[in-house]
Design brief:
Blueprint: H1 2-5, E1 9-13, E2 22-24, E3 30-33, E4 44-48, H2 50-53, E5 56-61, E6 66-73, E7 76-84, H3 92-107, E8 114-120, H4 146-157, E9 160-162, E10 177-179, E11 182-184, E12 187-192, E13 199-205, E14 216-221, H5 247-260, H6 267-286, H7 305-324, H8 327-362, H9 365-378, E15 388-389, E16 395-396, H10 399-414, H11 438-446, H12 461-466, H13 468-485, E17 496-501, E18 513-518, H14 521-537, H15 553-570, H16 590-604
Parallel strand pairs: 7-8
Antiparallel strand pairs: 1-4, 2-3, 3-4, 5-6, 6-7, 8-12, 9-12, 10-11, 13-14, 15-16, 17-18
Length: 607
């Protein structure tokens, strides 16, 4: 319906979905909703088009009756607020609380920001009275009641215009709610008076199956904002390395690569020649991706011809009932609605049955994790971030400014140094060292994991694995040259830094991201060889669990729980100290931290 009516944002009420989440709908639309009450009577939400999802800056869920979404358009902030007022039979305390909360939200929105309020306000504003020309257009329906007075008072207090009343319509075209013989106007769209000229039309559309009794209200808006250059995220065309699993293609690739490689003496020349050979051969044998990125969700995968026909019959029945109002047509619509729900449920169940059976049969844990991550991401409010905040909290929407903000953050984070204090005495460890052996190179390649993101050189570790013994010999020759010449390829010194959101805090704050470097896989193989040698020369304390082979931080958590349980059984006091070494923990002043810990322990007399 939203796609057919070209609706970009839709405020909905009485969603009755529990939780404060988001949910992907068909055709790429996304529902952001606020939790319903325990009795499942309330709940509000905003449905956004794919284009608007990328402009979301903030989502605030006040309660199960009020929520709003902030979006950035051409440097202008727009707030879409959805509200669901208590019905006439609700208590006065509940009504007062709603309007008090709604007033609090409006007070917190700066006057320079555009505001669009859409909701079921459960009041009759009726016609215009004296002195209301600035807020009421004069085209209302019914008699004004107490709830209607509060709506007008709300509009006057915050300089809003009730757009429903601003356009001349026949009385029947003003009705937004029908229940039997009862007809009324209780659903409204409001905007700031200074932006009222941007609202070209507000109309009630009958026949859309949004809700059984409520009608769809649409406001056509043309916002005057400064045009800015739209940044298009262009995906790089990459080699289809996953086709290495094909035996025939793998053999063809190996034959061509091993026939073209050259064992140059210089490390730089060696890598420049042979890395180019690997990439060019990979393009020829495996091909390149389209560079268009992940395909957009154009339609629901379960939408088949049967569902389409049943839903069409339901919409036709709803339209007929709206026009006639007869009990017979109402019963026909209820039957068609029931059949539609059954058809959709059956289609969804059938669409996921085969994939889940295959997943259960293969016991593919990676695929299961991938599905879980995909569903978790779809439930997040913000998945595509186009705005970030600088150090002062100002929202940046220009792509160049955002890149500069990331650059400043990581430069400060990665280049900050603390005073390093030598805690041990001793001279340098000098002496003869053994050359890199072939066994070391082969061991390092075998212990590398597959399926990892490649660095800027675009050569994955699978290449060296599938090149076989001759590939190991080729890699061994490179490592010996690096070891003897004490020089590594310049291309290895460049990496891609990818910010990964930690899942907590403000999503537009750079400090809530963890930087992950994508480095050349061949360099990682070399580092693994050096790391194995260093571990033979050094001793790591047994208390360290992170970055240790055969140990995990979950082991430390298990040991900690056992200690707590043991002291609990003995009813003995237990004192613990926790350090949170944020981000670049390897540069933190460890000596100073240990001194602070010792002073804290002595102060509490802890053994």
């Amino acid at each position: 319906m939203m796609q057919r009516r070209k609706i970009k944002a839709l405020c909905v009420q009485e969603t009755r979905w529990k939780g404060n989440k988001a949910n992907m709908l068909a055709e790429g639309y996304k529902l952001l909703y606020s939790s319903a009450s325990p009795k499942s009577r309330n709940g509000v939400g905003v449905i956004l088009h794919r284009e608007l999802q990328e402009e979301v800056c903030e989502v605030s869920r006040v309660n199960d009756r009020i929520m709003y979404v902030k979006m950035m358009f051409g440097g202008e902030m727009v707030t879409v607020l959805t509200a669901y007022a208590p019905q006439a039979e609700c208590s006065e305390d509940e009504k007062e609380k709603f309007w008090r909360d709604l007033d609090g939200v409006m007070v917190g929105i700066p006057e320079i920001e555009r505001v669009i309020v859409g909701g079921d306000l459960n009041g009759h504003v009726s016609g215009r009275k004296g002195g209301e020309e600035r807020w009421h257009g004069g085209w209302g329906y019914g008699e004004r009641n107490e709830e209607g007075k509060k709506i007008v008072e709300f509009a006057v207090a915050f300089y809003l215009v009730i757009t429903n009343t601003s356009f001349q319509r026949k009385r029947e075209k003003l009705i937004t709610y029908r229940s039997g013989e009862n007809k009324s106007q209780i659903d409204y769209i409001l905007c700031r008076r200074k932006n009222n000229e941007e609202v070209r039309n507000t109309k009630v559309i009958y026949g859309e199956g949004i809700a059984t009794q409520h009608q769809l209200i649409v406001a056509d808006c043309e916002m005057k904002v400064c045009k800015r250059q739209r940044y298009i995220n262009q995906c790089e065309r990459k080699i289809k390395w996953w086709r290495l699993k094909d035996k025939n293609l793998r053999e063809e690739f190996s034959e061509k690569v091993l026939g073209k490689v050259k064992l140059a003496e210089s490390v730089q020349e060696w890598w420049k020649i042979n890395s180019a050979v690997i990439r060019k051969t990979g393009e020829e044998v495996f091909g390149l991706t389209s560079g268009k990125g992940v395909p957009k969700d154009k339609e629901a995968w379960w939408w088949n011809e049967e569902v389409q026909n049943v839903v069409k019959e339901k919409k036709d029945a709803k339209r007929k009932w709206d026009m006639s109002g007869s009990a017979e047509d109402g019963q026909a619509y209820k039957s068609a609605k029931k059949e539609g729900k059954r058809a959709v449920a059956n289609a969804k169940a059938e669409s996921v049955r085969e994939p889940y059976e295959q997943l259960q049969k293969n016991q593919d844990m990676r695929q299961l994790i991938r599905i879980g991550k995909s569903r978790d991401k779809a439930s997040k409010d913000l998945t595509a971030i186009k705005q970030m905040k600088d150090e002062t909290g100002i929202i940046l929407h220009d792509h160049g400014e955002i890149i500069q903000s990331w650059l400043n953050y990581f430069e400060k984070l990665l280049n900050e140094e603390n005073v390093r204090v030598n805690t041990e005495e001793g001279g340098s460890n000098e002496g003869l060292t053994m050359d890199i052996s072939r066994d070391e190179a082969e061991w390092a390649v075998e212990n590398m994991k597959n399926g990892k993101a490649v660095g800027l050189d675009q050569i994955p570790v699978e290449v060296w694995k599938y090149l076989g013994k001759k590939g190991i010999d080729l890699l061994w020759d490179l490592m010996r040259k690096i070891w003897r010449q004490e020089e590594m390829p310049d291309e290895w010194r460049t990496s891609a830094l990818i910010p990964i959101f930690k899942g907590k805090g403000i999503v537009q704050d750079c400090s809530n991201y963890r930087g992950i470097k994508l480095m050349a896989h061949t360099m990682k193989i070399w580092e693994r060889v050096i790391e194995a040698r260093l571990r033979k020369e050094t001793v790591v304390c047994e208390e360290q669990f992170g970055f240790m082979p055969g140990r995990r931080t979950t082991d430390a958590i298990h040991a900690l729980r056992r200690i707590v349980e043991g002291h609990g059984e003995l009813q003995a006091d237990l004192h613990m100290a926790f350090f949170d070494l944020q981000k670049t923990y390897d540069k933190s002043p460890k000596g100073r931290n240990m001194e602070r810990l010792e002073r804290a322990v002595r102060a509490r007399e802890v053994c």
